[in-house]
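User: Here's a structure from my thesis project, written as structure tokens. My advisor, Dr. K., wants to see whether a designed sequence matches the one we expressed. Can you design one independently, without my sequence as a hint?
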């Protein structure tokens, strides 16, 4: 059985489950499948940047433990008003600069494109060049984090509006390499849910439904692409996760790619 040698890739938003996506990238590297260009949003930006800077799967796995949220988020003393929220992203900005560099256009293996939600225009914006530390923080900017200013506009999480940017136009040449989309989902989804016990349960379930519907629309539009589902039992938002949780998610990503290989999704 032959497999793709070179692909373009799109990765869905992950929350703090980005090690699942990174595990998929590690497995592809070990299989000898190269990624030419990659478009990422939200937490998947960490996986994309690690992949663009570090070649071996061993080094990528090591790096996943160096960019933990608990080590790079700082609680704000007065999280009120305007663009301030519960956590400052200055630590993440410094981490991006230290590990990945200053300019997005300098990442080349794969060439990386990042989406973020422009608060001022209401549009999802694709960045292919510009200040990487700010763009990286912008695409991960959930409402619990300070908003990020780039130029004259402020940005928030790229998952708002398009959590799976597989159908964005212009980030790759459709005549060049096949496109694989890597979508992180909870293991066993969709599944029957119990009736909500609290208003928070209902709100979170409704948000999941909206993301699912939005993802499905973008998948249907990207008729030229193949979608690989990356399943994990990890929660979508765990700001205090440690190395053990990271390694477990990397394993989930690797196993998901192996299943995709057996299903013929990789060539």
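Assistant: Designed independently from the structure alone:
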């Amino acid at each position: 059985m032959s497999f793709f040698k070179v692909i373009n890739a799109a990765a869905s938003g992950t929350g703090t489950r980005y090690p699942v996506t990174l595990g998929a990238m590690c497995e592809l590297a070990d299989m000898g499948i190269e990624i030419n260009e990659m478009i990422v949003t939200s937490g998947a930006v960490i996986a994309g940047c690690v992949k663009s800077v570090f070649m071996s799967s061993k080094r990528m796995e090591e790096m996943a433990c160096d960019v933990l949220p608990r080590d790079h988020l700082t609680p704000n003393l007065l999280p009120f008003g305007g663009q301030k929220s519960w956590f400052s992203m200055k630590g993440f900005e410094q981490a991006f600069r230290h590990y990945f560099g200053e300019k997005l256009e300098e990442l080349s293996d794969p060439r990386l494109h990042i989406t973020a939600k422009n608060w001022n225009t209401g549009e999802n914006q694709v960045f292919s060049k510009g200040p990487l530390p700010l763009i990286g923080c912008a695409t991960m900017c959930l409402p619990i984090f300070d908003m990020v200013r780039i130029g004259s506009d402020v940005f928030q999480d790229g998952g708002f509006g398009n959590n799976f940017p597989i159908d964005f136009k212009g980030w790759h040449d459709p005549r060049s390499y096949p496109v694989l989309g890597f979508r992180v989902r909870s293991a066993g989804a969709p599944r029957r849910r119990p009736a909500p016990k609290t208003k928070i349960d209902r709100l979170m379930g409704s948000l999941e439904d909206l993301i699912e519907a939005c993802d499905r629309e973008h998948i249907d539009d990207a008729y030229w692409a193949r979608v690989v589902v990356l399943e994990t039992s990890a929660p979508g938002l765990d700001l205090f996760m440690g190395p053990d949780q990271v390694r477990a998610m990397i394993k989930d990503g690797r196993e998901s790619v192996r299943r995709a290989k057996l299903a013929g999704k990789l060539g």
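When you compare it with your expressed construct, this may help: The mean pLDDT is 92.
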